[in-house]
Design goal:
- The protein is an alpha+beta fold and 241 residues long.
- The protein is built from 9 helices and 6 strands; from the N terminus they run ααααααβββββαβαα.
- Strands 1, 2, 3, 4, 5 and 6 form a 6-stranded antiparallel β-sheet that branches.
- A hairpin with a 2-residue loop joins strand 3 and strand 4.
């Protein structure tokens, strides 16, 4: 085996170089297409291995400038991995925060999840508290951890929002007026984040933006399914009469 390796050092170096280039290109493409995040372990780890393979390939055709670049790339990637590790280690979440993150924002890096939660607040709201007012700007995104709210549009009750649901998920992001009024029908435990602050976080932190966009799409799908179910039930009740 050692003799074969000694006789094929050039071939192995070329393979290592090709693997390194492939990892560089794959990691950058995955980052641009949103498959991986820049602030996750995956991206710096792929770059570290890519630089390592390219550095190995230089053993047969050494180039000082390229070697320095690859060495610096390895060091920077290692520092990035260590930074993510230490940021994640010192972050703590309460039980209700963990439940919220698991259900609504599971893929956000730990330190950014902490920043998002610190930008809002948990509060206990009484029955009758108005969360959104039809036609008025939505001032905050509200997550109902435990409780219930009635949704009214054009003077008619169009639905009920229960625990583990969001209020104002679209309009808090777009800045448009509320399409309906939402009022708590019983005392509720909620997480609230200012709409302006939310949009600032989304602009500054792409992982938060991606998570909120996915969350909005998921919540809208849930509400459309619930609306269709109510329409079908109403149609069945009318037909039965």
């Amino acid at each position: 085996m050692e003799d074969w390796i000694a006789g094929n050092e050039t071939l192995l170096a070329e393979i290592a170089g090709a693997v390194g280039v492939g990892l560089y290109l794959a990691s950058y493409a995955a980052l641009q297409f949103g498959v991986i995040r820049g602030q996750s372990y995956t991206y710096p780890a792929l770059n570290l291995f890519a630089a390592g393979f390219v550095l190995v390939s230089l053993a047969q055709s050494f180039n000082m400038a390229s070697a320095v670049i690859q060495t610096c790339w390895i060091v920077i990637s290692a520092i990035g991995i260590a930074r993510i590790f230490f940021l994640s280690r010192r972050v703590r979440f309460s039980d209700e925060e963990r439940i919220f993150l698991q259900h609504k924002m599971p893929n956000v890096p730990t330190h950014l999840a902490r920043r998002f939660l610190d930008s809002g607040m948990w509060c206990d709201l009484e029955a009758g508290a108005e969360l959104t007012h039809e036609g008025m700007p939505v001032e905050r995104l509200v997550y109902i951890a435990d409780g219930e709210a009635a949704v009214v549009a054009d003077g008619r009750t169009v639905g009920t929002v229960r625990a583990d649901s969001l209020i104002g998920e679209i309009t808090s992001v777009t800045g448009e007026p509320a399409t309906a009024s939402a009022t708590l029908t019983r005392a509720s435990r909620c997480f609230c984040i200012d709409a302006l602050q939310l949009r600032v976080l989304m602009r500054k932190h792409p992982p938060i933006q991606s998570a909120i966009e996915r969350l909005v799409a998921t919540e809208m799908q849930k509400k459309i399914v619930a609306l269709n179910r109510r329409v079908e039930e109403s149609a069945e009740a009318t037909a039965a009469d």
